[in-house]
Each structure stands twice: as C-alpha cells, then as structure tokens.
Design a protein that fits this description.
Blueprint (H helix, E strand, L loop, with lengths): L3 H37 L9 E3 L5 H4 L2 H11 L3 E4 L2 E2 L2 E2 L6 E2 H10 L3 E7 L11 H18 L3 E4 L8 H20 L3 E5 L7 E2 L19 E2 H7 L7 E5 H7 L3 H7 L4 E6 L13 H10 L4 E4 L9 H14 L5
Parallel strand pairs: 1-2, 1-13, 2-6, 6-7, 7-8, 8-11, 11-12, 12-13
Antiparallel strand pairs: 3-4, 4-5, 9-10
Length: 324
C-alpha cells in the first residue's frame, strides 16, 4: 500500500518530468519556427487570402500551371475567377474547361473559391428579365457542377431611377434564389457608382459634391441592400470603389455584418501605399463581423509587372498585424 507521502512524491516527480518534456518540445518547436524564418525570411503564418485572377492580366495566361505554383509560393490560398463563359474560362488565354482550370489550380494547392461573371444585359426591363433568369440558371448550374462556392455579379447594371434600382434588386433576389437551388451562394460586387443617388421617375443618377439632393433621392447601394432578400443576397465589398464613390466601407460593414461576406482588398498603388484606404479599420471590422474570405484585386492588369505587384500585396498582408 502506497503512503500519502509516497503518492505525493511520485506525483510531483511525474509532473516535473512532464513539464521538462513539455519545455523541451516547446523549445524544439520554437527552433523549428526560427529555422523556417531563417530559411524563408518570413515568420511562419497561417493567414488565408486569395487573388482575383484578373489582376495578373496576360502574365498568368502565358503558363497557368507555373503561375498557380508561383502564387502558392507567394502565400495565396484561394482564387476568384474572371472570364467564365458557358462552362469555360477565357481570360487573356484560350478557353479552358472550368474543371481543367480547377485541376491546375488544385495541383498547385489553390482553391477556386469564387467566380465573377457579367450578365450580357445592361438594361433590366420586364422584357430582358426572362433572358437574365436563363443566364443565371445556366451559370449557376455550371458553377455548382464545379463546386465553386460563390457566384458574383461583377458589375452593376444601368440604374437611372429609384424604380430601375428596385427592378435590379428584384432581379438580384431572383438570381440568388436560382443559385441557391443549385447549391451556390450568390452575391454582387459594388462599383463606385453605387454611391450615386436616384430619384423616383428619374432619367439619370446623381452625384453631388455639395448641395442637397432632390426630395425622394435614394442611394443606389442602399436600395440594392435594403430591397433585396437579406437571406439570399450577399455582398462582396470593394472598399476602394466605395471610397472613390464617397461612401465609408466601415459604415456598411457595421450596418450589414452578415450580408457583406466577401471583400476585395485593393489600392490605387501597391496595396497599403496610397494612404487613401484605411485598410486596418476595414479589416478589423470585417473580422469582427466573423467574415474570413477576401481577395487581392489589382486593376493594373496590363502593367507587365503584375507578378511583382501581386507579390508586394502578399507581403503586405503577411506582415500586417491586423490581417488574419
């Protein structure tokens, strides 16, 4: 029979040995991390961020497998497509079946998470809405077969009046319902023009630097957010476009925390260099809302130095303490 004193002594010795082994293991892990930093020049990170592929322009299209591998090495994890049409992707390169495109990306360790598409209709009327519905049925089905999670309307159609904006909102809700039936989440991406206002029966959108808007004027962005189904329709926030349009991204992130589920991270120059976009406040609110998926977007697609710019953006995100 073991005495209480022997039991306590044995317990103490076991605990001491356990702590010693734990300390040695922690030291080994720390050395491993330090070795990684010494070899790569960067601390080990677990940040997950993506790229809107349009930002690489022709440089990606020259050799997709090599380009995808390079993106992975830079730190990117996910991709957002552009150039989808009827089951194929053609963006500064010949048309490639979406499944083949995905396989090349997956072989490099990248996930095709989202896709930008542009409906072939700019005027939403009672006559064009049936064609629009058919477009979304085919497009949603194609993305569902490929397992793409998000389907994004890339641009805002022509809006000149409150009634036109409400018609667009109706079409957005219908598109999102069609996508949901296929198992895909639908969202729309804003441009700067969503910060313009429209009036009932208007003939043109309005943007004033000073003065008062006419009675009944509503901001296009507010109509698209308030008059769509909040369960079906999500939003991809383009913060720089909102700033250019005169809106505050953080205000909308706070007002619609569960609607704005995706984000484009961009700047006039290299990411974080213009000083006009408060990236820290935007990121902090986005994460506080519980959202996680965002993509670097660089619209200087024809610079001839896009991989350099995309690499600089990755470095910015990896080193920014407010980015997860």
């Amino acid at each position: 029979m073991t005495s209480h004193q022997d039991f306590s002594s044995n317990t103490f010795m076991k605990r001491r040995d356990f702590l010693k082994r734990t300390a040695l293991l922690s030291a080994a892990c720390l050395m491993g991390n330090q070795t990684l930093k010494a070899e790569t020049g960067k601390a080990e990170v677990t940040k997950r961020f993506g790229l809107q592929v349009y930002g690489l322009g022709p440089e990606l299209g020259r050799d997709l497998p090599a380009g995808f591998k390079r993106l992975k090495e830079l730190g990117y994890s996910t991709l957002e497509l552009a150039g989808y049409n009827n089951g194929s992707v053609a963006l500064f390169h010949d048309a490639i079946d979406l499944s083949d495109y995905q396989k090349m990306a997956a072989d490099a360790g990248l996930e095709v998470l989202s896709s930008h598409v542009r409906p072939p209709i700019r005027e939403y009327t009672e006559e064009t809405l049936p064609q629009l519905r058919e477009f979304w049925k085919q497009t949603a089905a194609g993305h569902a077969r490929a397992g793409v999670k998000y389907l994004i309307q890339a641009s805002i159609p022509n809006v000149r009046s409150v009634e036109a904006a409400q018609r667009v909102a109706q079409a957005y809700t219908e598109a999102a319902q069609i996508a949901r039936e296929e198992g895909v989440q639908w969202a729309f991406h804003n441009e700067a023009n969503v910060c313009s206002r429209v009036v009932p029966g208007g003939e043109e959108s309005l943007f004033l630097l000073s003065g008062r808007y006419p009675q009944g004027a509503r901001m296009i962005y507010d109509i698209l957010l308030e008059d769509t189904d909040p369960v079906l329709v999500q939003v991809e926030l383009d913060s720089m476009a909102l700033v250019i349009g005169g809106c505050d991204p953080v205000t909308y992130l706070r007002k619609f925390p569960q609607r704005i589920t995706l984000m484009h991270v961009k700047d006039y120059e290299n990411l974080g260099e213009s000083g006009m976009i408060n990236q820290e406040n935007i990121f902090r609110q986005f994460f506080a809302n519980g959202q996680t998926d965002y993509f670097v977007e660089d619209e200087n697609a024809m610079s001839g130095k896009q991989f350099e710019r995309i690499a600089a953006a990755a470095d910015y995100l990896l080193n920014a303490p407010f980015v997860r």
